Amino acid sequence: MSFFLETLAGGLLAGVMYALVAIGFVLIYKASGVFNFAQGAMVLCAALTFVTLTERDVPFWLAGLITLAVMVTLAVAVERVVLRPLVNRSQITLFMATLGLSYVIEGASQVLMGASVHELDLGISDLPVEIGPIQLSSFDLVAALAAGALVIALALFFERTRIGVSLRAVADDPQAALSIGIRLPVLWAAVWAVAGFVALVAGLLWGARQGVQFSLTFVVLKALPVLIIGGFTSITGAIVGGLIVGAADALAEIYLGPLLGGSVSTWFAYALAVAFLLVRPAGLFGERAIERV
Amino acid sequence: MPPALATLSGLGAGRRPALPALPARTAGLALLLAVAFVAIPLTATDYWYNAILIPFLIMALAGLGLNLTMGYAGQASLGTGAFMAVGAYATYNLLLRLPELPLPVSLAGGGLIAGAVGLVVGLPSLRIKGFYLIAPTLAAQFLIEWIFNQVGWFSNYATSSAISAPRLVFLGHDLSSPAGRYALTLTSVTVVTVVAWRLVGSQTGRNWRAVRDGETAAAVIGVPVARAKLSAFFVGAAVSGIAGALWAFAYLGTVDARSFDLDRSFQALFIIIIGGLGSLSGSFIGAAFIVLLPILLTHLSNAALGGALDGGQISNLQRIIFGALIIGFLIKEPNGLAALLGRLRRPAC
Amino acid sequence: MTRLSRALRAVALATSLAGLPALAPSASAADETGAQAPKQYFPLATFRVGAYASSGIPSWAGIIDYLRYLNEVEGGINGVKLFWDECETEWAVEKGVECYERQKGGREGSPVPVFLPHGDPVSKALTEKSVADKIPLLTTGYGRTEAIDGRVFPYSFTVLFSFWSEASSVVNYIAEQVGGKDKLKGVKIATVYHDSPYGKETQVPLDLLAKTYGFENIQIAVPHPGNDQSAQWARIRQIKPDWVFLRGWGVMTPVAIKTAAKTGFPVDRIIGGIWSGSEEDVRPAGSVGKGYLAITPFPAGQDFEITKKIKAAIVDQGKSDLKDLKSFGSVYYNSGLIETIIAVEAIRTAQARFGKRPLNGEETQWGLEHLVLDEARLKQIGADGLVQPLRLSAKDHEGGGAGKVLQWDGAKWTIVSNGWVKSDRELLLPVIYERAAAYAKEKGITPRSDDTAEASAQ
To answer: Which end of chain C has fewer CB within 10 Å, C or N?
Structure first.
């Protein structure tokens, strides 16, 4: 039993890490209706910028600020160059554009900062801690706290600031929002910038776990099932979806894997997502009715 | 954008005067087949066969398959790689287990099996539509890759679950030389393209377009929507499946499931978006763009930047240019290169 | 008619490119010799971009630095200088094939002596093409295990340390630690592998070894890319193996080490495989990587005679291909150095027979199959301790089959095994020959007999 609990806890904590990436997707999807494949490249770009700075003895907080500035600049550029000319185009076209964007960001990050693997030490120990019958890592707990803090901060941001309110207005009814004078370009740039910040947090946590390197971009592949299960438009959904995917992956790998030859987690999350899609197309917390016959 | 666009449009321009006045279609067709079947075998080198012509033709076919499903019938799919894998593994097993079957039959059989798998993957399209369809197709992509990696039977229990081409022989001719593999590829691609062309002009093709342009309206005027969707998945996957078998046997020789990963599906998607959704020629133009552009960029950057930058920087710059070109095309030429070339050609005709 | 003709016209458009004169091969050759004497071309298929660039970059530096050293200090191979160019593959199979096709024709009058595919999938894709083109594929520490049987695979050279030998040497090292092979009975060895053809290569030999020695063989797959392994290591915590044999690639290795530490598995009981045993694999894991072991045919270090010479003549003169000099003497740097030493010695061997001029692939293939790198020769080159003694033949394209075990001390590798840990080749070879024969049967290849190897080179 304690083994089951431990697997479950480990899976849930891994799910938190997926959720961190998924939140970035939700923000952008809410504002501009794009499944932003470049989110992975943004995670890489943020982590690489940060680690390049700290390796040159830039203090932690300053490196964070500079990275944030880079991400905001990137957000504004993306809005100008990519999103604005593609307004009113189909979702699949926008998706393709973000695929192209991911090539540009990955290439540019590596031209400027190299392709080597960097160690990122956040000073959080990643050793086991016994909590009751189960064993967890303090790093995972910090990651979970960071995700929690991020969700609260984003909730406040969307409740209390003008941009947040505008965003909800746009998500509810773009036409009405435009007619009452919400400026979409500003909103888009702002939301991409916030998504850049989320990418920074995700990049730091993932980077500390596996080293800052190209494969950080692979984390996007786990984000899609998270979004389908949780709903594309809900931050709470991203967290819950992440937890479900993390737990389901871990349990499937342990209990189903040996029966089927292992590596079931490459597709299990997607199979689960399809099941959700057929039963509950909007996801658990989705707002908008999605297209279905 | 400039180099590749300039090259392609330059070529279009260069060919323009050569086109005869009115029976242009027939003459153009004959010219084209003459070039592909006669001129190329007389002039091409191994490099052109193995590195350019064969992968170009195969990816064009894979793009064509996706174009039937997505461009004509409007059903989004990110499962092209998986369908290619099914085609490759199915053909391999037919060749291995039923050696009496002639090569073309095994190839077609592989395509049909891939089509059947595509049909199953397409079932959720009866309930889900639009962008969300990429979820079931992605699920298929990962699941199928996993199955071929795990289940030894499909690869005849090879040490590393990789399959390699049995001898390619047809009517006593050994097709394993580069020219032979080109002939096999070109013939298959031509035959499949003709079939696809007949199909999109038939009632089935009209049904597909009706579903794409408006499902409810299509249902109202009596189009069998479910059948149209499923047939689009079936045909598209079958075409991609044949492309996969060719990729495995006529191009690489040895493949494992990872040769048909998600990147391959993305590549097919790029091909039809850049070439033109709902256009047969678009698949070919898009494939030419995707296959040739990186090679062209390498040569150009080597010529231009030579010793100035190391290989890594050049390759990263290529990545940037490639990404920027994709975005540029999506913005400037939403109907793809096929439409662009069409416009370029019209003034002359 | 419209659509079809448009479609076909598109084909013509693209294929009419074929009528253009073939694009000249890239002009970025590192042409560094002024002499008029004919030079030997040495093509490099590199991956400086993409997910695995970090492992590639130091390897090319090892290759290029040694080639530069040969040209500048030794005046080439018997006076024949070398030149090279690079083709970027991004570690993708189809790009690797394109590079092979682009480079195989040779350059500036020199044919291609040998091709280094640098990637397990691409080496498999090139197996048959290389036979048709008569260009030997040199795969050090990777590649098709059955290609050890050169009678079936005349142009594939799985030199040094195949994956089967890797598995066997790891078992033998564990045997040394537990006090002999007879003590292996009941020992639990869990193999955590990258779920790919490469990762699965060791399943058959480990099965065989487990039957022979009686240890418990547990296989745990990690799906690509391996950036979350909590489930796999939870299983290991439950099974409690005595040793873990880690066969990773890319990001999988640092994540495995981190996750092992997180779940409390002792890191000094994990033995990494060839592609889990570099600085680039361990460094991202940070301080918890201390004590981690790895088996490798590419021992790290800067104290080998040849390494010192390269340092003095190339690195200290600012001529190294390395941008980050801390990689000098690293596992990957030395891997490039070692494969180039083998290639160059094969060319040297072939030159003794065919003359001191640029050689083609067929001639180098003869050189490879007659390569003898014994202790004495290795001492002459300055590579003793770095390269294991090798003797290749048509029947044996591996030659050595031994590795050294390294341990990470938090900052660098130290060699902890007592010299080279040998594999049980006598046990494995019959099975390998059986598999090669099955391959030959399936493909309709008539294996060369041992003595026609000599004749076929004529």
So the answer is: C
Percent of chain C at pLDDT > 90 equals 60
Could you list the residue range(s) of the whole structural domain that residue C309 is in?
Answer: 35-161+301-392+434-456
Are B317 and A111 a contacting pair at CB < 8 A? Answer: yes
Listed by start position, the domains of chain A span 2-123+134-215
C364/C445 same-domain check = yes
C200 and C348 in a single domain? The answer is no
Flag whether pLDDT at C300 surpasses 60. yes
The CATH number of the domain holding residue C197 is: 3.40.50.2300
> Is residue C30 over pLDDT 50?
no
C86, part of any domain? yes
ipTM for the assembly? 0.84
Using alpha carbons, select from B72, B135, C228, B290 the residue that is nearest to residue A35: B135
Among C4, C14, C19, select the one facing B194 at the smallest CB separation.
Answer: C4
Average pLDDT over residues A185-210: 87
Whether residue C450 sits in one domain with residue C388: yes
- CA gap B328, B325 in Å, rounded: 5
Banded pLDDT at C451 (limits 50, 70, 90): low
Residues C131 and C208 in one domain: no
- pTM for the model stands at 0.85
* Residue C19 belongs to some domain of the structure: no
> Quick one: average pLDDT of A205-216?
85
3-state secondary structure of C313: helix
pLDDT for the residue B298: 75
For chain B, domains (ranges, CATH) are 2-348 (1.10.3470)
In three state form, how does the secondary structure of chain B look? CHHHHHHHHHHHHHHHHHCCCCCHHHHHHHHHHHHHHHHHHHHCCHHHHHHHHHHHHHHHHHHHHHHHHHHHCCCCCCCHHHHHHHHHHHHHHHHHHCCCCCHHHHHHHHHHHHHHHHHHHHHHHHCECHHHHHHHHHHHHHHHHHHHHHCHHHHCCCCCCCEECCCCEECCEECCCHHHHHHHHHHHHHHHHHHHHHHHHCHHHHHHHHHHHCHHHHHHCCCCHHHHHHHHHHHHHHHHHHHHHHHHHHHHCEECHHHHCHHHHHHHHHHHHHHCCCCHHHHHHHHHHHHHHHHHHHHHHHHHHCCCCCHHHHHHHHHHHHHHHHHHHHHHCCCHHHHHHHHHHHHHC
> Same structural domain for residues C147 and C231?
no
Half-sphere exposure of A201 (CA within 13 A, CB side): 26
Do C53 and C156 belong together in one domain? yes
Burial (CB < 10 A; 0-12, 13-18, 19+), residue C333, is buried
Mark whether C167 and C157 lie in a shared domain. no
Question: Is C19's CB within 8 Å of B39's CB?
Answer: yes
Number of CB atoms found within 10 A of residue B26's CB: 12
pLDDT digits (tens, 9 = 90+) for C153-195: 999 999 999 999 999 999 999 999 999 889 999 899 999 999 8
- Chain C CB contacts of A17 under 8 Å are 228
How many structural domains are present in chain C?
2
Which residues have CB under 8 Å from B261's CB, separation 6+?
A: B81, B141, B145
Phi, psi of A92 (to 5 degrees): -70, -35
The predicted model gives B24-41 an average pLDDT of: 77
Instruction: Tell me the residue type at A261.
Output: G
Mutation choice for A interface testing from C48, C218, C227, C322 by most A CBs within 10 A? C227
CA dist., res. C210 & res. C175, Å (int): 12
**Distance, in angstroms, between B21 CA and closest chain C CA?**
15
Instruction: Please give, rounded to a whole number of angstroms, the shortest distance from the CA of A273 to a CA of chain C.
Output: 19
B204: closest CA among B190, B225, B219, B221?
B225
Candidates B182, B200, B284: best to mutate against C (most CBs of C within 10 A) is: B284
Helix (H, G, I), strand (E, B) or coil at A212: strand
